[in-house]
Amino acid sequence: MLVAPAKGIFAGQSVLLNLNGDKTEAMVVRQPVALHINFATERGVYPSSLMGTMAALRQSFLDAQDYARHQEAWQASPRRFKRPEYSPFLESLLPYVVGKRLVIFTCPNQEDIRRAISLAEEFKLNVLLSGANEAWRVVEAVKKARLPLLISLSFKPPLTSLYANQGEEVKKQAEDEIYPANPAALCKAGLSFALTSYGLTKVDDVLKNTQAAIKAGLPREEALKALTIHPARFLGVEAMLGSLEAGKMANIILTSGEIFEEKTQVKKIFVDGQMFTPKKAPPAGAGPAAVSLTGSWQGKIVSPMGEVDISLELDQQGSQVTGTATVMGNKRDIGEGNLSGNALAFTIQTEIMGQAMSFSFQGTVDKDVIQGSMATPMGSADVRLSKVPQD
Amino acid sequence: MKTRQLFFLLALTGLIMAPALAKGSDLLIKNGKILTVTRGVLDRGDVLIRNGIIQAVGTDLQAPPGIRTYDASGKYVMPGIIDSHTHIALSGTNESADTDTAEVDMADVLNAEDLSIFTALSGGATTACTMHGSANPIGGQNVVLKLKWGRPSQDMVVSEAFRTLKFALGENPKRANRSDADEARYPQSRMGVKALIRRELLRARAYMEQWDRYLAQKQSKNPAVLLPPRKDLRLEVLADLLRGKLLARVHTYRADETLEFLGLAREFGFKVACFEHIPEAFKITPELKEAGVGTSVFIDSWAYKIEAAEGIALSAAYCTRQGILVSLNSDGGERIRRLFNEAGKTLRYGRLTEEEALRLITINPAIQLGVDKIVGSLEAGKHGDLAVFNEHPLSAYARCDLTVIEGEVYFDRTAYLQEREEAAKRAKAPKQTGGAR
Questions:
Q1: Contact check, Cβ <8 Å, A160/B12
Q2: Is domain A295-387 annotated with CATH 2.40.128.120?
Q3: Is the whole model's pTM more than 0.90, yes or no?
Q4: Is B369 helix (H, G, I), strand (E, B) or coil?
Q5: Is the pLDDT of residue B375 over 80?
Q6: Can you give the CATH number for the domain in which B164 is found?
Q7: Domain encompassing residue B150
Q8: Which residue of A has its CA nearest to B427?
Q9: Nearest residue to B88 (alpha-carbon basis) of B136, B124, B120
Q10: How far is the alpha carbon of A83 from chain B, nearest alpha carbon, in Å?
Q11: Which of A228, A238, A297, B310 is 20 to 30 A from B357, alpha carbon to alpha carbon?
């Protein structure tokens, strides 16, 4: 499993883990693996827009090249050249910009794919495209660029997509029928790719959505490769992972039947040769949850700009919280929902002027009241919601 | 709501069905009244497009068999409309976290899925310059697009166009109409705006000289061991302005400020492609003419803020007659679909001839954008970009029926209305027998 930092333009570096137990150090297969870059923006400071982000990325890559030139010149002839001032930021970019280690661009929509391709070409970076669930729409460009793809198994149309902006019916149809066909379309175009859980909030959706991709035309054989040998190859670990071969790590799963069949159950899992037996998940709602969020909530967001109504439809399973938020008539999915004790956090992803924005909520739950604050591009706002009684 | 949704659904169909072409197509437009703009009017004529290029404009043209033919009998055929200044097809308009953002490029933030592209086509528009906003004294680089709805954004970019950089003077960059939150930002006055631009140009000049010295050293007979100066993208773009590789497009309202900017252009030796909006242009026509700088304006939209108070509806026609190159712009996704109405107003306000009026939305903006060799009129050798109207496009009753880019039909009103009707039927059908698709 490649675990990557999520937020910011230069999000940070990822680590490859074997899920072999509870000791973190023992889990690490490779560290660091890649530099992760998002086409995100800053709030209030530069770059505050996507166009600024593109310029800032270019400037950072140029500065890293410049820094490397200076370092090299000074080390070669310290008498002639001034010692360059140390920059931790540029120093950490060097292996990726000059050393050609993996750079992973998160590309939620077709335009982001185009942007990543142009940066990869301009700066000769060793790039993987992640997310890319609109790769089918720019398949010719992707083919030409020959960049490996880490395709997300989340089939929600991106917020910039026309499919996301024409009401629930179109959006649902796109999610059920159009976007699941992305892997099949790429396969048909002769591209190899990995399938990833990026963008999914429920663990079960990995298998469920792989099945949907197969139903939409992805050959099973390709689906299996996309979850094993292709990612191993893309991440440069195919000598040790990705297939059942003598000498590779003993990471194996045993199932009751054909791996992508709906009724198939995972019986045993071996990681680094250690055996794990999956436990049956407790039925939803069971267990001693401190508070229950599942249901409808209504309340207000109070900001210096005024008050707006907000309503939430939440579904809580253990610490995982999913659902939708409706603000000023716009219904959006909530993401990164997490309940820990009585502390609740989630984000609402939306889109303003073609630019993705996220509003993050942090607060607490006390029986039938959710209270906290929401960070918005206009500043912080207080939020208070009450549970709508069920009859 | 229902209609709106239907419309979107159909626009979507258009997106999916869009032609997948590498190069232009073939098309013969027959028997229309041909308004060439630069070569007069053919009362009954044809336009033949081969591989996306106009092969001939004339009468009784014979097309090789198999070529798609459109019967324009009783209709008017004009060059595709060109919008010299808009903000459609973008993810974001301003990088407003700084006052000089010359490094940002609108070509980086294209959004091929902006519905404004489709609605613009429905008004005969085929080419548009989509620009950085006016939040900063020095904004970003603009991009010229062919409005090829359904094609990937990079296929829309017109690489032949001038490279241009947006500047903005007056109320917008000094944040006169903003909330208190912006008060801290320099500049807060018109003198500040000019001083800031001048400061940045001086920095760019020093940067350029630094690079010139470096390159001269490197190319000399005994080059010293030197490291190149740091590449600064912001100054790089401004240096290109000073080198004449890039032109200024300047958002300006008042005559005095406009003249001051021309002073800056003279001082630093850079070129202005065109002044934007400029409601007070009629006050300074001799100066504009002398500088050889045109304008990109609205017709009868003024007084929406203090600095727009002195606009007049006659300005576009008056400036045209004074020998200034004038174009009309939409500044957004709405007016872009009825620029022919805007041009029509100059027949009333200023009594321009039909040809002069059409020039404002065709060849004039083409010249300003540096694309007049390929678009802006119906002439053999130019791109097959045209619009067919039911009436004279300057008539108040005009309606665009067909829009063509490089020989390919991107908007066909009849086909579109038919699709819409069918979609409406499907939407009404009971879910179990098909439902909305």
A1: no
A2: yes
A3: no
A4: helix
A5: yes
A6: 3.20.20.140
A7: 100-374
A8: A169
A9: B120
A10: 13
A11: B310
Residues B40 and B7 in one domain: yes
Tell me: do B69 and B205 sit in the same domain.
no
Over A312-381, what HEC string results?
EEEEEECCEEEEEEEECCEEEEEEEEEEECCEEEEEEEEEECCEEEEEEEEEEEECCEEEEEEEECCEEE
Within this chain, do residues B309 and B398 fall inside the same structural domain, yes or no? no
A58 contacts B91? CB cut-off 8 A: no
Helices (H) and strands (E) in chain A, counts: 10, 20
Report yes or no on B89 lying in a domain.
no
The pLDDT tens digits for B17-40 are: 444 444 689 999 999 999 999 999
The reply to whether B114 touches chain A by the CB within 8 Å rule is yes
Residue B110 lies in a domain: yes
Do B363 and B394 belong together in one domain?
no
Q: Is residue B85 part of a domain?
A: no
In B, residues 141-180, which contact A (CB 8 Å cutoff)?
A: 152-154
If asked whether residues B382 and B270 sit together in one domain, one would say no
Closest of A136, A98, A138, A99 to residue A116, by C-alpha: A138
Where is B346: in which H helix or E strand? helix B339-348
Residues B332 and B344 in one domain: yes
Mean pLDDT of A37-66: 95
* DSSP-derived secondary structure letter, A200: -
Contact criterion met (CB below 8 Å) for B295 and B283: no
Domain total of chain B: 2
Look at residues B351, B374, B397 and tell me which one is the last residue of a structural domain: B374
Name the CATH superfamily housing domain A2-38+100-243.
Answer: Metal-dependent hydrolases (3.20.20.140)
Joined together, the tokens standing for residue B143 give 């991009």
For B253-264, what is each residue's pLDDT tens digit?
A: 999 999 999 999
- Residue A52 and residue B95: Cβ atoms within 8 Å? yes
Domain shared by B143 and B160, yes or no: yes
Task: Tell me if B12 and A58 make a contact (CB, 8 A cut-off).
Answer: no
pLDDT (tens digit, 9 = 90+) per residue, A219-251? 999 999 999 999 999 999 999 999 999 999 999
Cβ neighbours of A163 in B, within 8 Å: 12
Residue B212 DSSP SS3: helix
Q: Are residues B18 and B39 in the same domain?
A: yes
Q: Is residue B57 within a helix (H) or strand (E), and if so which, with residue range?
A: strand B53-58
Report the gap between the CA of B139 and the closest CA in chain A (Å). Answer: 11
Q: Do B225 and A80 touch (CB under 8 A)?
A: yes
Chain A partners within 8 Å of B136 (Cβ): none
Domain boundary among B374, B392, B425: B374
Give the residue numbers in A contacting B (CB under 8 Å), as ranges: 42, 44-52, 54-55, 58-59, 62-63, 66, 69-70, 73, 77, 80-81, 110-111, 114-115, 137-138, 140-141, 160-163, 165-167, 169-170, 173, 353-355
In a domain, B86, yes or no: no
> What does the domain layout of chain A look like in residue ranges?
2-38+100-243, 295-387
Write the pLDDT tens digit of every residue in B45-55: 999 999 999 99
CA distance A42 to chain B (A): 9
